[in-house]
Structures are given as C-alpha cells and as structure tokens.
Specification:
Number of strands: 5
Strand order of the largest sheet: 2-1-3-4-5
Radius of gyration: 26 Å
Helix content: 40-55%
Strand content: 5-15%
Structural class: alpha/beta
C-alpha cells in the first residue's frame, strides 16, 4: 500500500500549484504580456504605378516609395521596403495586365497607387480612365485585405511644365486641364471608397521646370523631387499605419 503523504508535503504541493497557476494567469483583465515583436511582424508594402513609381533614371533608394518606407521606419513604423509593380510608359490597362501576370499577388498591409500620366500623354479619354482607375482602385483595396484605410493614392504630376514638354511643343495649358480632370476622377473615386488621396500635382507644377528637380531627360523627377512627394505623403501614410 502506498504511503499516505504527511501534512507538510501536502502544504508544499498546494503552494507549488498556486505559484504555477499565478504564472499562467493572463495579466490586466485577460490580456497577455507579449515578448519582443518578431521580425515577421513587418508590414508588407505594394507600390503600383508607372515611371513615377519605378523612379525612371534614379537609383533604387531614391524612388519615392522607398524613401517613404525608409522614413517611416526611422520613426518606428515597421514598414518593409516596397514590392514595386511599375514600368515607365504604362497606362492603366497595362498596369492591370502586369498585375494579372504577377498573380497570385498575396495580401499587403499597405498599398499605394499612382497611375494615369501615360493615359493623358496618349490622349486617352476621361471615361476610359475612370473605368480603368476604378478597377485598379478596387484591386488595390482587395490586395490590402479589403481594408481601404490601408490604401493611398497619389495624384498625377503635371509634366506639362517640364523642358521635355516645351521641346515637344506641347500646350502646357491643355496638359494641365487634362490632368486636372484625371485627378478629379481619382480623387472622387478614392473618396467614394474611403481611400486617402495625396495631391502632389501642385508640387510638380511649382518645381517641374527646375533642373535640380529633374533627371537629365528634362522630364522624369529627380530624387530631390521625389523627396518632396515623400514629405507630402508622409503624414497621411503615418496616419494610415498608426497602429504599427
């Protein structure tokens, strides 16, 4: 027959059970205490666009999506460097086709979209832009796991003020009017879906004739110009990613 434990042993066992229960009980009304944030907690970022997003002519570190991610990380926001789907010359439909070819794209914690200048350059209609942009915006939201609060749209810059446009004999007033119409469509649809819209067109008009703000082709923005766009987009992105 097993020996019956004495009172001292029972008391010691009870104390041990109390300590074990205390160690396993969540603190603060049921919330758990977490350890260090794992590296895989970084927010994945997808940047969609054309030459303005791929940064034609600039080093990869100078692209505005890369500048934006780097600046936010310096502020403590765990945002990864962007996956960029963008190529110089793309129109809205060409971006959409490239996204089709890249499927499955997965899900992202942050998505940006800047597209349309080549639609205007090729004199595509406003109605076509509306339909294409709306489709791209809905896709961007879906890629952000359906959270429109994690999508940011940038307006189309005005290339009509650049030396390239002047050399081509293009009418800057007509380009400005066309782009204003395109951007009004993008702003309207963004508001309709609860997506943040950042207007950088004014910056492009103010500085677009400055050689320091352009690459050697007299058309595409330099890293310095992208820095101004980043500064404009930063407070919006900071707000959207405030939970991280």
């Amino acid at each position: 027959m097993p020996r019956r434990p004495d009172r001292a042993c029972l008391l010691a066992l009870a104390a041990a059970l109390v300590l074990l229960a205390s160690a396993c009980t969540p603190l603060g009304g049921g919330s758990t205490v977490r350890g260090p944030t794992p590296e895989n907690d970084t927010v994945d970022y997808l940047a969609l666009g054309d030459s303005y997003t791929i940064g034609e002519g600039v080093d990869p570190d100078g692209r505005w999506p890369v500048q934006l991610a780097r600046t936010l990380r310096a502020e403590g926001v765990a945002l990864g460097d962007p996956r960029i789907i963008a190529t110089t010359g793309w129109t809205t439909d060409e971006l959409s086709q490239a996204m089709d070819a890249a499927e499955p794209l997965g899900r992202y914690g942050f998505v940006t979209l800047l597209i349309g200048v080549n639609n205007q350059y090729r004199e595509r209609s406003h109605a076509e832009y509306r339909g294409d942009f709306h489709d791209l915006l809905r896709r961007a939201i879906a890629l952000a796991a359906g959270d429109s609060g994690r999508v940011m749209v940038l307006s189309i810059p005005d290339w009509g003020v650049t030396p390239f446009a002047a050399a081509q004999g293009r009418d800057p007033a007509r380009i400005a009017s066309d782009l204003d119409a395109y951007n009004a469509i993008a702003a309207e649809l963004s508001a309709q879906h609860g997506v943040a819209f950042v207007d950088i067109t004014g910056i492009s008009r103010e500085h677009g004739a400055d050689p320091a703000m352009l690459e050697d082709d007299g058309l595409h923005p330099s890293e310095k110009m992208y820095g101004l766009w980043t500064r404009e987009a930063l407070p919006v992105a900071r707000r959207l990613l405030g939970g991280h």
